[in-house]
Design brief:
heterodimer, A: 481 residues, alpha/beta, 16 helices, globular, B: mainly alpha, 0% strand
């Protein structure tokens, strides 16, 4: 079906060697293949070779050949490839051309000049297959992450491709939506389609993948059948856990000895007629790493925004060390590290970014903070030129510099490999050491196991559970959905 | 669906009306002509489920016109400056803004592409313009997050940031530009994998054609604009 022969590649602007070296890979019809490995190992580059973005969109130095049904892909224009191959990408914000769902579902068919009757037939068939009648004629921007990804899958399916290439499709999905995604892949498999999926997050894939390709520095380092793969030590390969049952929480004890509390009072927020946040009075341990969990739409983001003082109509009060903090006080004491950190880095160098946050600029102190976060060698670099993890650390550095006492992280590990996830967890512990309380909005069970000591469980805008980490309860939430 | 009226103009009609309204910023039309033309966005908004915006718009416009007719001739000093600024901004800019708002909030990207291609406008113009349509909701989300991020850093409408307004603009523009470039890049890659570069003519599921409604609106616009242009030219010639 698909064959890569001695493929090597280096991107145009890459001076540090090849991104792919001597890749030989052959995929049979109906197989589901998982590509895994650390960030930058070449997974995404392979998917780009398959869907024709290399050489049609990304330029570089390329050797070897890719064959689709015995025809060389490099001779084909990309729209011919797209008749056979559907691609789903990581970022739901940028893979939609339309604003409304229905137009997006038929976009591919329209581009390939299918007749209107044929398009109608296909639209009906994918709507039935994916069970998305309720999502038709909706604004894509108003859908949840899981729904967006469902629309993305249905839209590529409407072209009836034989092969699907997925590049980290679950990065922005919560655990329920990830399991839903497994169902989609299973459906494709039943229909005899070939699926190639590049992913860090593995737990939802153990029942559907046939073969695993492990990449290291642009080379295929290992190849396993799924049965073999389940029994390897994932950590030693730098991979995320495939079976969440193997995880246990490491923080059954609280970090801080003197049990102090933060008290939240009257945190309420309405959006139109719906009460999206409804918290009367709750006590949460101070100076801990607190995971905020709950389904999509449970009110986690609203909770974070209200806690930071970003929502004017939320009249809640935070009581900390006997002081009652209203909205404006909280804006000064709290800081949110956003999921898209790009939004919160404004200046031209890492050092400036930290200085900007200080009331009185103090270069020595700023350099100390950078030193501790392992950023000092980058102090003159432009924040936008850094990697995702480094940007996140710069945001943390500026929060420390402005003497924030409460930090809120919005999905700090979405799309991260094991190494980077562990780094985030180290950063959280470092902040705990400085006396800072961190709230982590997360779907990442592995991160919670590594670092969190307390859990707040939100559902329908209410805190339905508030407890010291507990394996059993967490497992109930993450596994039995 | 309930009692929802099936009111939708063709994107071409919307754009022509928008262009005519924009032209009228340059000069004051006679009250009757401009009243008819400013009513168009109001009617459009009213029938496409934006009743509240339509009402606020008309109220603001009438208020501005009343100020111009009854209060301005007798107003003096600082108050006059404030009233002039307010009433002229509203009476000249608001119709365009509302028509723009109507156009963007009620036009689907696919509808826009279909109607433009029906009029044989080349794809090299249609696709970039349609991406602009598509980008507006992203841009709004973007500005919201940036504003939040700045508030947390102590910027916003306060003394610290007003001391240096240029910096504030820079803080908005740089992340916005960077994210625009990134979005454009990822969006083009995704569209390519979905066959956008196919040279054969696209097909369209959505049906667009100029209806009686379109012709009515276009006729009213043309007549209004004709009178406006006649008056304007006569004014120029006499002077």
């Amino acid at each position: 079906m698909l064959k890569m022969e001695d493929v090597s590649f280096a991107y145009e602007n890459n001076d540090s060697g090849r991104n792919l070296t001597d890749i030989n890979l052959s995929v049979d019809k109906g197989e589901v293949i998982l590509l895994c490995g650390e960030s930058g190992c070449g997974k995404t580059t392979i998917t780009r070779f398959l869907n024709g973005l290399i050489p049609n969109f990304f330029n570089g130095n390329r050797e070897g050949n890719v064959y689709l049904k015995n025809e060389s892909i490099s001779e084909m224009p990309i729209y011919e490839i797209s008749r056979h191959m559907g691609s789903v990408f990581q970022n739901p914000k940028t893979q939609f051309f339309n604003v409304d769902t229905t137009s997006e579902l038929v976009f591919g068919c329209e581009n390939l000049s299918m007749s209107v009757d044929e398009i109608k037939k296909r639209l009906d068939s994918v709507v039935k297959d994916f069970n998305i009648t309720h999502l038709l004629d909706k604004n894509i921007f108003k859908l949840s992450g899981g729904e967006k990804q469902k629309i993305a899958c249905a839209s590529v399916s409407a072209v009836f491709p034989d092969i699907l290439v997925l590049d980290e499709p679950s990065s922005n999905l919560d655990s329920q939506s990830s399991w839903d995604f497994e169902e989609i892949i299973k459906k494709w498999k039943q229909q005899g389609k070939t699926v190639i999926i590049a992913e860090h997050k593995l737990f939802f894939l153990s029942d559907v993948v046939d073969r695993v390709i492990f990449l290291e520095n642009g080379k295929i380092a290992k190849e396993w059948s799924i049965e073999e793969f389940k029994n390897i030590d994932h950590r030693s390969f730098g991979l995320r856990q495939i079976d969440l049952d193997n995880l246990t929480c490491k923080r059954n004890e609280y970090y801080s000895q003197n049990r102090e509390f933060l008290q939240l009072r009257n945190f309420k927020f309405r959006y139109g007629d719906t009460q999206v946040l409804d918290i009367d009075d709750v006590k949460i341990p101070k100076n801990e790493i607190i995971a905020v969990i709950g389904k999509n739409g449970a009110g986690k983001s609203t909770f974070a925004n209200c806690l930071c003082g970003l929502k004017k109509s939320c009249k809640g009060e935070l009581i900390c060390d006997g002081a009652v903090l209203n909205r404006k006080d909280r804006l000064k004491k709290t800081y949110m590290v956003m999921q898209d950190v790009n939004h919160q880095l404004f200046t031209e160098s890492v050092l400036d970014e930290v200085l900007l946050s200080m009331d009185e600029e103090d270069v020595n102190l700023a350099e100390d903070i950078l030193e501790n976060l392992n950023l000092i060698h980058l102090k003159d670099a432009h924040p936008m030129a850094l990697s995702g993890g480094e940007k996140q650390r710069v945001a943390i550095a500026s929060a420390i510099a402005s003497k924030k006492e409460i930090l809120i992280f919005d999905e700090p590990t979405s799309g991260l490999d094991l190494k980077n996830m562990m780094r985030v967890s180290e950063n959280l512990k470092y902040l705990q050491n400085l006396g800072i309380t961190s709230f982590i909005i997360t779907h990442d069970f592995e991160l919670i196991c590594e670092s969190c000591s307390h859990i707040i469980h939100l559902d329908d805008g209410k805190i339905i559970d508030n407890y010291n980490v507990d394996d059993k309860k967490l497992r109930d939430f993450f596994l039995n959905q | 669906m309930g009692l929802k009226l099936n009111f939708n103009l063709d994107p071409r009609t919307k754009i022509i009306i928008l262009a005519v309204l924009s032209f009228m910023v340059f000069n004051d039309a006679s009250l009757y002509v401009s009243s008819i033309l400013v009513l168009i966005p109001c009617i459009c908004l009213f029938f496409s489920n934006h009743k509240k915006s339509a009402a606020i718009y008309v109220a603001c416009y009438i208020l501005a016109k009343l100020i111009q007719i009854y209060i301005l001739p007798n107003a003096t000093g600082f108050m006059a400056i404030v009233l002039i600024t307010f009433s002229y901004t509203v009476s000249r800019m608001l119709p365009i803004l509302m028509m723009g708002y109507y156009t963007i909030s009620t036009t689907k990207v696919s509808e826009f592409i279909a109607s433009m291609e029906n009029s044989s406008i080349p794809r090299s113009i249609v696709i970039p313009v349609s991406v602009v349509f598509r980008y507006i909701p992203s841009l709004i989300e973007e500005i919201r997050s940036l504003t939040n991020a700045m508030k947390m850093r102590g910027f916003g409408l306060n003394v610290k940031s007003l001391k240096n307004p240029l910096k504030l603009i820079e803080f908005y523009m740089v992340p916005m530009l960077i994210s625009a470039v990134k979005t454009a890049d990822e969006l083009s890659a995704a569209s390519l994998t979905r066959g956008l570069s196919n040279p054969e003519p696209r097909t369209h599921l959505i049906e667009v054609e100029l209806t009686k409604m379109d012709y009515t609106f276009l006729a009213i616009t043309c007549i209004g604009f004709g009178i406006y242009a006649y008056n304007f030219l006569r004014g120029v010639l006499i002077a």
